[in-house]
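Running this now, will post back.
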Amino acid sequence: MDDDDFLKSEPPVDPHDTRPAGRARQRVAQRRREQASKRGQEPVRRRGLEQLAPAGKFRLPDFRVPRNQIYLGYVLGAVFFIAVIVFVLGRLRNDSPERPPNAIWIGTEWTYETHDDAAVEQLVSDLRERKIGTVYAWVSWLQPDETWRGVDNFDKVSAFAEQFKRLYPESELLGWISLPVDDGEGYRLDQTDVQDKVVQFSQTTVEEFKFDGVFLNIEPVWNGDDNFLSLVRQVRAALPEGTLIGAAIPPDWSPLNADIPVPPLIVPGTIWEDSY
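Update: finished.
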């Protein structure tokens, strides 16, 4: 080897030499970075090693929830849970007791008199003990002159209805309204003004006196009497939907072939056929 060849040759590399390559290695790394930049790549450093990754590579966004929002979520969740518990318990607590199956009529001794709560509570206790849940309480009857009897006591009737329903809320309280169809001058159930008065007073009993419904005691009603059916339909149409309506259906109690006086309201012909 002549002098020129010696100058152009690279010195031998010791494989056991662990010293840094110095500037030469730095230049190689610089060239790699420049080449990566030209190809649209950027170096990615991981644990001290330099790797190349495409500049447009998809990366998941960082989601950072503020700590105060986390606390707010806990609070809202707890409030919702408590609201559900309160709602369920309220539904269970507010379920009305089952209404007893029996019924009874009460008269002016209750509706036309003033009673303190203790007296009405005793009445309610007696009714519950006898499993009576439906009460027909006397209100009035239409007189021959087409006025209602006991007008001066209607404030007491209304007060009793409020008092009774407050102390016995699961009961059904119906206002007992009576109409004798014979006013002494003949049959009057076919008269329009008479039917109108019954309809209007039924509305008063429910809407002003606050009864749960009305009990119509029309007497007597003959089998097949369309005037009675017309009256019931008018009362039903005049009252709010769902209002209770009851009616007395007088049977024929007179014994057959018996030579005994028969009360005028209990006569043959007042028992109704199934079709009616």
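Residues 31-63 form one domain. More later if anyone needs it.
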